[in-house]
Design brief:
The complex is a heterodimer of chains A (88) and B (416). Chain A contains three helices and one strand, in the order H-H-H-E. With 88 residues, chain A is mostly helical. Classes of the chains: A mainly alpha (88), B alpha+beta (416).
Amino acid sequence: GGNPSARDISKGVDWLTRYGYLPPPDPFSARQQTLEGLREAVKAMQRVAGLPETGELDDATVRMMNKPRCSLPDIIMRPEGRSRRNKR
Amino acid sequence: YALSGSVWDKKLLTWRLENSPNTMSQDVSRTLIGTALAVWSKETQLQFRETREQPDIRVEFVTGSHGDGYPFDGQGGTLGHAFFPGVGERAGETHMDADESWSYNTEEGTDLFAVAVHEFGHSLGLYHSSSENSIMKPYYQGTVGDPSRYRLPPDDVDGIQTLYGQPDSGHRPPVTPTRRALPPRGPSPGPRLPFPDRCSTNFDAIANIRGEAFFFKNRYFWRVQSSRQLVSLNPAHLNRFWLGLPPDLPKLDAVYERTNDSKIVFISGTSYWVFKDTLVEPGYPRPLADFGLNTDGVDAAFVWKHNGKTYFFRKNLFWRFDEKRGQMDSGYPKDSSLWQGVPPNIDDIISWENGDTYFFKGTQYWKFQGGNVEADPGYPRSTALNWMYCPLEGPAVPTDAPEGRDQRGCSCTCTD
């Protein structure tokens, strides 16, 4: 957004992970987060919060992230790799 | 609205309030909790009855970490949470942050009734809603006014009636809960190069950078998020991330984030480099003598949260540096034994976000709670176990690993 600081981005990533918009870090896969992935996560957060979907950590988005809230995540993640298909 | 996917298989549910917040009497709390539940029964066939026995819905005011993986964070931040019906032993449990300034029907403080209505939505099987007027929006929206006059918004009525039917009509057939899509998986990691074993090594330097802990060893580093999650078991290569360090630099001695401009200082031998984010600033390396340090290097450097000053350690001495003045404070060096309970020649030190300070040496670390200069009892503990996600070998040892992480190295994930 308006040039957020690295600390804001770091906090934003933490927040997005805590509330289910980004997958939790998986120490067993060493996957890196792409900028596009972050934008999509921010957009999803903005959609749920009723904010314009800019995909950027703008002031309104950071303000919303700082609002008091329920501890439960907004999006339920299934554990990675769990398949709905079972071996016969 | 969104459904959690679980539902109570009975219409009469019992509840019990375990305690009350400091700002409110037990009677007022009980009335608000009872009224918040009645809001949901008004629109459904559900009925609620208070009990002294083991209840279906147990409401409790708790503080900080309380053993369920959703620690509270003092005033503001997270306010409450509740467990969905039928999911484990905690089903129906509802926790409120005891550190909030709870109130009702006023703009002052946090409206207990409004938060309770929201959390009971979870206890009954609803998930967060993105609807503009829903009480199930995840964010606190201020007081909802007089509890006795409150009615659920239409989105929440639709949601709860899908689960438990309308009050005086037949039960609507339950719909299959929709699940929100997962983001696609990333590509599988490529071939790996040999790197140090994080479970048996000591670390050259450890730093708190932007709220995350970076553990440096030789030309690699590991990264631990502020939630104490290790980002990867495999380290990253120093020169692929921090651009501008000499490619043949064998190791770092100390790293810290400056308080005055958030730039990051890397120290190796008698030289140092200053980085803006991940890129080195022009004009570096510079000699350590710039700091007024006439030593052959430093063992550790960190910024103490309690005064914003930078501390340098070398062998059994330490210095205090004022970044704003760009000068060493007078009266230093002092003997490092002033930090009681840790040996000399420390590997490195970090201040954590909550103000605690950690000293690392060898494969162990010591914790200094708050602004204490005396190590906490029960330390040293294992860095491998509590920071590096390493499996526990031998008998159980004390840990301050975050909740939800098994000491044997497993990672627990809350799922639907």
